[in-house]
Amino acid sequence: MKTSIQPYWNYVKKTTLWHYEALIKKLSVLMAYPVVWKAYNHNMTQASVFARNLFPDKNVDAGEYPAQILDTITHLKHAGISDWGNLLARIVTREACKAFVTENNLNFEKFIDLLNYLLRWALPFLTASRQLLAHENTLEMSYYPILKQHGLMNSFDILEQGYTVEGRRVLAEHTGLPKDFVTSIAHRADIARLPYVRRKTILPVCGAGYDTLAKITAADLAQMDTLAMPVDGRYAIKMPLFQQWLKATTSIERIVKEKERK
Predict the structure, then answer these.
(1) Tens-place pLDDT, residues 142-157
(2) Could you tell me which residue, 174 or 205, shows the higher pLDDT?
(3) Domain-located, residue 188
(4) Is residue 3 situated within a structural domain?
(5) Which phi-psi region, left, alpha or beta, contains residue 105 (left: φ > 0; alpha: ψ -120 to 50)?
(6) Domain count along the chain
């Protein structure tokens, strides 16, 4: 027997830092970028594998995070949710969310925890194009107005148009930007998809030669410990956390293509 759920909406803001409507809007942004969205719109079986791979050191069987998330994903699968897009389409408003949670006998707070997991871990953050640039590099910063002029405002814009070799060639031709720069910033946008990876991580890692997601995936973690950071500490990385992100790259589908398909 289904019982009406009385959602505690303040829990949404407390947990995710966003009111419900703003949260759903943020979770839905990626849908406007078909190339990137395709890599993340997992069915529930894929979503379970992805969640486990993001936390390879956690004892899920003992209840460590993301055990609760995995339980909720299983519940969603039994409820007939086909993929993340299907879920988001069914919970656009508070009323729709309440109805969905009630109909499927979900725990409201655990369901919001799942949405918070989507926001923080399962879906990539949108990174402003300016944050992909080396601010101390005058030449790179001179390219920023050109990026804006051509609508390349964020990492998703860059990936959507520059994920293939041909796409990057066209971008370089249309913008007048050097092809090497276009390729470089496309890879930085790709790396920015890693959970919690931001400019202060991307730039020194790329500078050390790990300038593509493929190279990061293949990196020797012990060798990464020897990364030389700038002496002023501006780009300091908490290496244990970064090592966790490195392990998680095995979950992240490649978007930027190195070669054209024949």
Answers:
(1) 999 999 999 999 999 9
(2) 174
(3) yes
(4) no
(5) left
(6) 2
Q: 66-80, pLDDT tens digit by residue?
A: 999 999 999 999 999
Cα–Cα distance, 19 to 30 (Å, whole number) = 19
**Contact assessment for residue 82 and residue 43, using Cβ atoms and an 8 Å cutoff:** yes
Residue 65 tokens read as: 């995070």
Distance CA 73, CA 84 (A): 10
Considering the domain architecture, whether residues 133 and 245 belong to the same structural domain is answered as yes
Listing DSSP states for 6-52 in one string gives ---HHHHHHHHSS-HHHHHHHHHGGGG-HHHHHHH---HHHHHHHHH
Residue 200 to residues 124, 174, 192, 230, 248: CA-CA distances in angstroms?
17, 30, 11, 11, 19
Residue whose pair of structure tokens reads 């930007």 in the numeric block: 177
Contact call for residues 18 and 12 (beta carbons, < 8 A): yes
Please give the pLDDT value at position 248: 64
CA 196, 117, 163, 247 torsion-angle sign: positive
Q: Which pLDDT does position 236 carry in this prediction?
A: 47
| Beta strand extents in 27-133 (DSSP E only) | none
Give Cα separations from 180 to 66, 120, 143, 169 (angstroms): 40, 31, 13, 10
From CA 136, how far away is CA 22, in angstroms rounded? Answer: 34
Nearest to 235 by CA among 196, 207, 193: 207
Give pLDDT tens digits for 230-246. Answer: 444 444 444 555 556 66
In a domain, 225, yes or no: yes
| Nearest CA among 151, 169, 215 for reference residue 188 | 215
Within a domain: residue 86?
yes
- Kindly give, in sequence order, each residue whose CB lies less than 8 Å from that of residue 216, ignoring residues fewer than 6 positions away: 191, 205, 210, 246, 249
